[in-house]
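Working notes for the structural subgroup meeting. M.R. asked for a predicted model of this chain before we commit to crystallization trials. I am recording the input and output together here so anyone reviewing the notebook later can reproduce the run.

Input as submitted:
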Amino acid sequence: MVLALQGSYHGDTLGAMEAQAPSSYTGFLQQPWYTGRGLFLDPPTVYMCNGVWKLSLPEGLHLEIPKLENKAFSSRDEIFHKIRDKSDLARNYSSYISEQLSQYSGSGGFYPIGALILEPVILGAGEMQMIDPLFQRVLVNEC
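Returned structure, recorded in token form:
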């Protein structure tokens, strides 16, 4: 089993397809053998709207971090800055990831997670998404 992100794309070979979440690329007509072998987290994304960089939280994180609903950044460099590693948001990300891993372990999953497969910052084949680099750093540290 792997730990990966929803919307990730690792390639079209059999093993790579098994290491990604269900999508239009893994449907029965595309990949009849697909079973999806992993825990797939829904990551926060960053995007630019009207010249302003913004943070978008997935539903699971939205409930835990409601005050950051409209978080904006002054520049792309601010998004990548390591000072964010000491923020409340980093601690919330860490709690969320730990909780997801605990739920997976406690659910009686037969196979333990053996690897983290992560595309750096930009992910997806169908729709490109920019993952919050802070979330990825926290995820790597949690692993």
